[in-house]
Amino acid sequence: MATSEQLADSAHFSVENVGGIDRTEVDIPPGVTVLTGKNATNRTSFLRSIMGAMGSERVALKGDADRGRIELTLGDTTYERTLKRVGDGVQFEGEAYLDDPEVADLFAFLLETNDARQAAARDEQLRDVIMRPVDVEAIRSEIRRLEDEKGDINDELARIESEKRELPELERRRNTLREKIEDKREELADLEEDIDDSSRDVEQGRKEQAELEDKLQELRETRSELESVRRKIERQEESISSLKRERSELEDDLDELPETPMGDHRDLEAEIDRLRSKRQDLNAEINELRSLIQYNEERLEAEDYELLQDGGAAAESGSVTDQLVGEDAETVVCWTCGSSVERGQIESTIDRLKDLRSEKVEQLNEVKSDLEARKEEQREATKKQRRRTEIERKIDDIDDELDRRSDQIDALKDQRESLTDEVEALESEVENLESADFDEILSLHKEANQLEFEIDSLESDLDEVTDEIESIEADVERADDLREQRSELVDELTDQRTKIDQIEAEAVESFNEHMESILDLLGYENIERIWIERIEEGDASGAQTRFELHIVRTTENGAAYEDTIDHLSESEREVTGLIFALAGYLVHDLHETVPFMLLDSLEAIDSDRIAALVEYFADYADYLVVALLPEDAQALDDDFTRVTSI
């Protein structure tokens, strides 16, 4: 891509065997360059050479050549493309200025056959032309992704908010536990003092006391282990209840989904394949028509008359031209043998080819619309199938988890039973060791053991509550970041959802503004206004828009009335088409990425208006290259660069 400094330099073109050109070298300085000359002076061929250097493939190889070359030097950078004849087509190689020339072909290279220019002049659906470069499905896919991400954040925020409401109760519970632990520790300290006092009184029974204390310690540990097992059983039972609730909710979701979401998916896939094949065939036919129209127009200009029909290579394969020419094909023999074939007859055939191409483009748009609808139906069915599969997998996982936790509960219950037996056995041993001398101290030890067990249990509860509080507080702190992230997602969603509307609105606004300016500038007598209205149709779930072109005329006494484009003069239609293409050029920001704008076939417009039109367009392109007849070029500013020989 050229830099702004490079765009201050002249662009040097070297062209071989393109269109009607054998070999030429041309320098194009910034600003307006006028290619002036009579017909058959390779002006259009050179314009197409510029298109080829930019990356377009709407370039014809010279009829008697197998290879061609286009070279563009801009500043210190050189772009070179070669053309090679392969079968009935042309293969392009090398580096072009643009990676993707599609939008430039539509809105920057405004030759006679340009789709945007023709669509406006023929009152075709303008909205489809403006939106053609926009990947609507990619925008919709991005919207779905953003909505899913926003939904996840909303779920997380809802969970955090729910947990936040539990904080006061958890903090009260933590304070209560701390108070209980403190009370128990004070009570234990008092007991330990009593135990010490009692121990001094029974010095002679230390051996028995030591054995008893060991048993009491073992009893305390066993009781603690038993309590731990009981808690594990409770937690497992709570988890099982939660899993069962989740399973029930998933089964409800599953009941709402069709048993076979894909339905007759084979029929749907077959229909999609059929539509794709039809789209491919229509694209091929449209490209063939475009090449054929371009080929014959360039031959008309160059007067290098090759065969148009039966003698030409384009007709040997039974191309779409046969649909138009029919029996008349026999009357058109060749361009060079000297037969008396009127030029108007050839031009008429080209016009009929253009009409057929327009019909094919309409069919292609319908097929694309049908294909998108079928693909959306397939995506929806696939989404439901994926959701059903996911739910079934989750249910299977829950069933496995339920089985696993049930096994754990069974094992824990066995362990609880064993520990209960062990506690009973230890209590029996302690009772056997008790004597009248140790009754008091034994009672104190039992009480102390119980207190220590209760303290351990309370501290365990305190740790769990504290961890839960800290986790919730961390989530609450993270909530602000999540809200900020959600806000950014909402802004991005708004941008994505309104992107198509913005492009359409900007295109309409741009056309209306420039059309108003150009009508004032060109001074068409009884045209009051030409403007586009953006009309929304359908409900919110399937809303569609279209552009409606309005033409307002005035009578001699100043009364306004609405007319149709069919009643415009050829000059007025051409200007309307060019302004529509300029609107697309600006809406898609081509003035920032495509330095060249090309104009051709302006003969229907009078020379003074051509001069005004060229000066108007010159404000928007770094290099504006215009092909004009000498009599039309005379009206242009003398400061503009002229190229008279190609």
From TrEMBL:
<protein>
    <submittedName>
        <fullName>Archaea-specific SMC-related protein</fullName>
    </submittedName>
</protein>
<feature type="compositionally biased region" description="Basic and acidic residues">
    <location>
        <begin position="197"/>
        <end position="208"/>
    </location>
</feature>
<feature type="region of interest" description="Disordered">
    <location>
        <begin position="370"/>
        <end position="389"/>
    </location>
</feature>
<feature type="compositionally biased region" description="Acidic residues">
    <location>
        <begin position="249"/>
        <end position="258"/>
    </location>
</feature>
<feature type="compositionally biased region" description="Basic and acidic residues">
    <location>
        <begin position="237"/>
        <end position="248"/>
    </location>
</feature>
<dbReference type="InterPro" id="IPR027417">
    <property type="entry name" value="P-loop_NTPase"/>
</dbReference>
<feature type="region of interest" description="Disordered">
    <location>
        <begin position="189"/>
        <end position="208"/>
    </location>
</feature>
<feature type="region of interest" description="Disordered">
    <location>
        <begin position="237"/>
        <end position="269"/>
    </location>
</feature>
